[in-house]
Each structure stands twice: as C-alpha cells, then as structure tokens.
Task: structure prediction
Amino acid sequence: MERFIMKEVDPAAFKAMLGLESYLSSTSISPLHHELIRVRASQLNGCAYCINKHTEDARKMGETEQRLYLLNAWREAPQFSEEEKIILAITEEVTFITQQGLTDATYQKAVQHFGIKGTAELIMAVNVINAWDRIGISTRRIPGK
Result:
C-alpha cells in the first residue's frame, strides 16, 4: 500500500529534487542515456515505480524492447556500445557504492571517453536516480500510478 506522495506531503523537498532534474537536463548526457541510467539503477535498487516509469520513457525516446530486456546482461550484450558500457558500469558501481565504489578502471575509462566534466555529470545522474529510487521505495509508490 502506498504510504504517501512526496510532492503532496513535502512540496519543498520535491521541488529540490526537480531542481536536480533541471540541472541534469542541461548536461551533455543524451536523454536516452539518462533513461538507461535511470532504468539500470532502478533495477538494481528494486524500485518498481521507477523501473516502470523509466522503461516507458525510454521506449518513447526510441529505445528498443530488446535492449531493455538485455539491460540486466549488458556486459555480454553486443547491442550496447562501449560508451554505454562505461555509463552502465558507472551506474552499477556508484549505486552499489559500499561494495567497491567507482573503481579506478571505470573512472579512467570514463575520463578518457567523457572528460572530467562529463564524468561528473554521469556521477550526478546516477546519484539523482538513486535518491528518487529511495523515495519511491520508502513511500511504496505504485507502478503506473
């Protein structure tokens, strides 16, 4: 059972989160790559509401069903580019920060491919969806609602 909707109970907190979303829309990360980050982090965190929302958003942007199905096995799937594999590695390592954190190997690949600023933007994108996931899970948001 859904506990509450953050936007209704604490509009200031919700507005602050939207401010982070506004920042993300100004970054160099493509909208489709944003959705891959959001879907993958939400899968890892187990946020049904966010998985549902962001897979729908990804499809609207042209993401294929095949790639969404393969997202859990992105390392083995040739459907993901090297750039996307770096993005997904960052997503997993930052989401599971207590396991090993962002490894030096992934960080170096990211900096080589995206530069320092682009790497910072990716880290922020992962952190923002992790915050949304935690809101969705702790308030028990209902998928599709």
